[in-house]
Amino acid sequence: MSAILYYGVPSGCSFGSIVALEWSGLPYRLARVDMPQMIHTPAYRAINPVGETPALLTARGEALAESLAILNHIGAQAIASGIAFAQGTREFDELNRMLAFLNTTFFNAFAPLWHLLEHESDEHEKLALTAYGRGKVERAHAQLERMLGDKPWLLGEHRTLADAYFIGIARWTKYHAVVDRREYPNLQRLYDKLEADPAVIFAHAIEQQTAAVSAGGFAGEIGLEEALGFKRAA
Fold it and tell me: b/e per residue, 76-103, with b = 16+ CB within 10 A?
């Protein structure tokens, strides 16, 4: 069977995995997971005990969680597409370095701000978390701006899994008015180019449940209960 990606809405970081699957050309299906209500069900926790998205049911029927693991799983099967590299090469190490930065620094910078949106806080806590989050997001943007420089893509001349993961996180600035991406012209340039990419346009349409045109191996969207049933059958 083709792999099934369980993607989270609204605006989950699983967005990057959809983009990566589109770029890979691999056959796949999608299962929509409304957050937070669906991720805490026993059925979904059988896929990912942590209760987070994304998760992937591989073509072998094995459940895989965490964006970096999923992206590397996709990349290992799509090296010919240019979005990933063979393990043991310098390019593979550079890709993992960039993915690690995006996960531990860029992604994590938004954590205090998401906490504010998802939990009740008093005024003192709001001010403290906003200031803390603003500082983290600004630093992460400044660091990534320098790392990108004048390169067309995060790793150089060609798009990779890192660019797919980046665009899913970078769009979070629209929820948190703490940084103006135009102050980071290299990142703004990359962001604009990715937003015009057919795979990113497709991923937006999937999330928004509007007409979506795949240029990859998308084999359709299935209901969450049906998708969870494949894991039980496997």
Answer: eebbebebbbeeeeebbebbbebbebbb
pLDDT attached to residue 161 = 98
| Inter-residue long-range contacts of 101-106, CB under 8 Å, 24+ positions, other chains counted | 101/143, 101/144, 101/147, 102/144, 102/162, 102/165, 102/166, 102/169, 103/67, 103/68, 103/165, 105/140, 105/143, 106/140, 106/144, 106/166, 106/169, 106/170
pLDDT along the chain (234 residues), means of 10: 94 96 98 90 90 95 96 98 97 98 97 87 91 96 98 98 98 90 97 98 97 95 87 60
C-alpha angle 82-227-43 in degrees, rounded to nearest 5: 120
Q: Does residue 186 sit in helix, strand or coil? A: helix
Rounded to two decimals, the pTM is 0.95
- Secondary structure letter of residue 53 according to DSSP: S
Question: Which residue in this structure is represented by tokens 């929509």?
Answer: 32
CB 113 within 8 A of CB 175: yes
Residues 30 and 222 sit within 8 Å (Cβ to Cβ)? yes
Q: Identify the three-state secondary structure at position 9.
A: strand
Look-up: residue for tokens 């057919």?
A: 198
Buried b (16+ CB within 10 A) or exposed e, 2-26: ebbbbbbbeebbbbbbbbbbbbbeb
- Termini Cα distance of the chain: 11
* CA 47 to each of CA 33, 57, 104, 141, 226: distance values in angstroms, whole numbers, following the listed order: 12, 8, 23, 33, 13
